[in-house]
Amino acid sequence: MIKNLKLKFIVLSTISIFLLLLTVVFGMNVLNYNSVVREADSTLSLLSHNKGVFPDMGGNRGDRLPPNMSPELPFESRYFSVLLNGNGDVIRAETSQIISVDAEKAVEYADDIMNKNSKCGFVDSFRYVRTVEGNGVRITFLDCGRQLDAYYNFLIISIIMAITGFIIVFLVISFFSGKFIRPISESYEKQKRFITDAGHEIKTPLTIISANVDVLEMDMGKNECLEDIRQQAERLTVLTNDLVYLARMEESENTLQMIEFPVSDVVQETSAPFKTLFQAQEKEFICNVQPMLSMQGNYKAIRQLVSILMDNALKYSPVGGTVTLNFTRQNKNLILTVSNTIDTVITSENLNHIFDRFYRTDPSRNSETGGHGIGLSVARAIVTAHGGKINADIKGGNLFQITAVLPI
């Protein structure tokens, strides 16, 4: 349990850090890219409204620029434009403000954009915009190579830094995770030790009480009070043994003695005696066990698992109901399913706590069934000790089903 808790803590923490870094990197780069596009579109808007040139190119070039633009922008920008008539024929290509593109290349870019029928976008490292000018169309291009290079460099650096930071945080969390969950681990270990120690201490008084009851019955004969004392002592003894067994199962998840054994025979032999009990209570019992199956596990624990599930089905199925046990192999797993009809409503909230200690679906905690609400907790501990999974479900509204998946 503690190892699973530690693993969940590491996974949850690293996923949270990963999502945080992903959000930060994605957000910064989206904003950076939008900034490049916004500045380019602002410059292109100015150029396209002035026939492909900056305003007042012959005089003081800063006087007629918008206040949010630098007076140095006309000197820093490299741009060109192509003017076409209404039929798409080239009238003029203006490339005097750029060296890397000649008139022929500019016309190729313009033809490509006219074929795409797009209003604005990128072609290579040039941002373009298409505007109507008189009876024709002007396509203005702005060289954004330096800005895009800066953007891509920032993108790569931010990704590398995010990955590096993620790895460092993952290593730190993995290293210190044991310290983070140590209080929980210590509390859990103390709880298990308390149950084990208290169980051993309680056994002696219970044995003495039962022995004294026997002595009193020999002297006084049987009476109702002594019988009540005996029943409650036996009930408490069973509960104590179950608690100690559960604590030991949880303590020995990785030290449980495992051997190869014919599990089909164990399931068949354990469930067979219940047939008489079902008949006595007018309940139908259907048993389907696939023969010749074997597994690596603890046969005593598996026998206990089958007995618990069968006993649970016996107690909580109504008169005239049906109990079904199925045991089959699916790929590399063994599937043990025990289902029984029910005459009470079990909600999804009940199912979430069905394997908790001392939990009962009956809020009044009626003990007429003779159980303590701990059997399914023991069943879960057995399945977990074998590296499997167990779950409960409601089928068709009136069929309660418990499924245990055990790796071979």
Offer a quick outline of the entry.
The chain is built from 11 helices and 12 strands. With 408 residues, it is α+β, with helices and mostly antiparallel strands. It has a 5-stranded antiparallel sheet, with helices on both faces. A 5-stranded mixed sheet has the order 7-9-10-12-11. The protein has a two-stranded antiparallel ribbon with strand order 6-8.
Helix content: 40-55%
Give me the number of helical elements: 11
Separation of the first and last Cα atoms = 21 Å
Mean pLDDT: 82
- For the secondary structure, the number of strands is 12
Percent range for β-strand residues? 15-25%
Strand order of the largest sheet: 2-1-5-4-3
Structural class: alpha+beta
- Unreliable stretches (pLDDT < 50, length at least 5) are 363-367
Overall form: elongated
Topology as a string of helices (H) and strands (E)? HHEEHEEEHHHEHHEEHEEHHEE
Biggest sheet character:
5 strands, antiparallel
Radius of gyration: 39 Å
